[in-house]
Amino acid sequence: MLKVENVTKVYKVGTFGGRTLTAVDAVSFEVRPGEVVSLIGESGSGKSTIGKMILGLIPMTGGTITVDGVPVKPGRDYYRSVQGVFQDPFSCYNPVFKADRVFQLIKDSYYPSVPGKEWTERVHSAIEDVRLNPREVLGKFPHQLSGGQLQRLLIARALLLDLKLLIADEITSMLDASTRIDVLNLLAELKGRGLSVLYVTHDLSLGHYLAERTVVLRSGAVVEMGLTHKVFDDPLHPYTRQLLSSVPRLHAPWEDAPPVETCLYHERGATGGLYEAEPGHFVACAKLDDC
Amino acid sequence: MTATTALPTEERVVRREALYFAVRNPKLVIGFSIVLVLALTGLFGPVILGVDAPNEYVAMPMLPPTSEYWFGTTTQGQDVFVQFVYGLRTTILAGAIGGGIAAVIAMVIGFVAGYRGGMVDEVLNMLTNIVLVIPTLAVLLIINAYLGIRSVGMQALLIGLTSWPWAARAIRAQTFSLRSRDFVDLARLSGVGTPRIIAREIAPNMSSYLFMTFILLFGSSVLIAASLDFIGLGPTEGVSLGLMLQNATQWSALQLGLWWWFVPPGAAITAVVGALYVANVGLDEVFNPKLRET
């Protein structure tokens, strides 16, 4: 389905672009049909950049991204099957227009010949699919709706297309706890329909809740990836361990994170890449720089 | 009752809200009234007066204002009121054409530079800065010397072509901040092309700003046109408020005490530009809820 291979993004910074900043460094992973993969990383790890490159919103510096074997080509045809939902629902709506204009844009681009009445029915059923009442949400301005409603409307918007892959970029981070679980359950339901979801998040527990497989990013590079329960129950990379221990727990007080150990896989010849610790569970060298 | 039926009414409510504050804003009402009265005078005055040539010698020279010649006559016996009405038309026309051309150029360059960024922005920004530092008067002097500005339209065109840079810079900066908003990305994900994104997503967010830009450019075009006329770089045909001032100076109206010759055009230029700036402050209050005084 989605194949990300050796994708790199280098920004030019400083006066006249004199220095470079590597935001994403040779990242490779895969999302299979009907699978939810969570892309976990802290702020600045390049996870949103990867999401935006898959959506073709920013160009790649190197590598390839293919969806069903077809390379990313920003345009009408590509967005028919690949869509994104972003972090801040309030910023996703043009504040001077009604919120339901997002549906109109889809109709104008993809279904100009569908008669108005049939289109209204389709919109209504998509809105009902995300468990909203069309009467409550249509015809209103974005500021008259809640963050959860707006976010679900954006998912409904994506459902109007022949969607195969959804890039969900931190879609629950602006929502309160109860709305968040509704949106997550909605994503789980979409997965049941055969939709692939790349769930970009910094929240480990949300990633764990939803995803079959997990990719852990650190400063633009993959440090560990594999089945979610393997990564979470038996983290191999010191960074993953540190990350997991930094999740606040309900019934345990704060404790020190384990120290970062020395190179784990250097001696086994895994420098510069990922080492397959067990089938399907990859881990990077812990001290890549000075190995 | 579905959303489709609810849509137009609510949109009207929002427009009505802007109109509600607009008609209750004294600055806006007074400013626009003055401009409107002067513009209508310029537009319909010549028709009502039924005079074809405002520079015709019609009466005794140097007559003070009378019931027959409202603003008196010039040293050559021309009717100052007829000249004033025609001059008003020319001056407002110069403002509208010059301001309009400048606003269109500023929008195109500002939007494209701000939205595209990168190399396109660098080039357009350089062009903007070059035009910004060119001394307009010197350029117009040279153009006048070589080509000669013969008509008001030509003069307005040259003013429009040289007065857009600051507006382009301002629009570019606004576009920069708007294009990074997620709704622009979402429009791209909906298969909307760049020109439509600029026109339908970004521009509506700054419509009040664009409107005010046009008003300010209009006012500055009137001023530039008047100053060009006054220093003798104006159109050689017809009459404008600036040309009236120039003639009055050349024929020593001030020394001869012919105040009716230069006060009306001077007052009208001041009134048009002043009223536009007052209206602009009022518009600011209408569009920006934080500035409303009530």
TrEMBL record, chain A:
The keyword NADP does not apply. One of its GO terms (molecular function) is ATP binding. Keywords: ATP-binding, Nucleotide-binding, Transport. Residues 2-244 form the ABC transporter domain. The keyword Cell membrane does not apply. Pfam families: ABC_tran, oligo_HPY. Coiled coil: none annotated. InterPro entries: AAA+_ATPase, ABC_transporter-like_ATP-bd, ABC_transporter-like_CS, Oligopep_ABC_C. This is ATP-binding cassette domain-containing protein. It comes from Nonomuraea ferruginea.
UniProtKB/TrEMBL annotation, chain B:
Residues 88-282 form the ABC transmembrane type-1 domain. It is found in: Cell membrane. CDD domains: TM_PBP2. It is a multi-pass membrane protein. Its main location: membrane. The chain crosses the membrane at residues 28-51, 92-115, 127-147, 153-171, 209-233, 258-283. Keywords: Membrane, Transmembrane, Transmembrane helix, Transport. Belongs to the binding-protein-dependent transport system permease family. This is ABC transporter permease.
